[in-house]
Amino acid sequence: MDLVNTMPELKDIKLIIFDCDGVLIDSEGLSKRELLALLKTLGVNITDDYFEAHFLGHSFEHVTAKIYQDFGVALPDTFRPEYQKALIAAFTAELQPTLGLKDLLDSLAVPRCIATSSSPTRVGHAMKVTGLDQYFAPHIFTASQVKNGKPAPDLFLHAAKNMGVDAKHCLVIEDSPAGVQGAKAANMQVIRYAGASHMEPWRRAIDPLTDDVTTISQWQDLYALAPELTTTY
Question: CB neighbours of 186 closer than 8 A, spacing ≥ 6?
Answer without folding.
Answer: 153, 156, 157, 160, 167, 170, 172
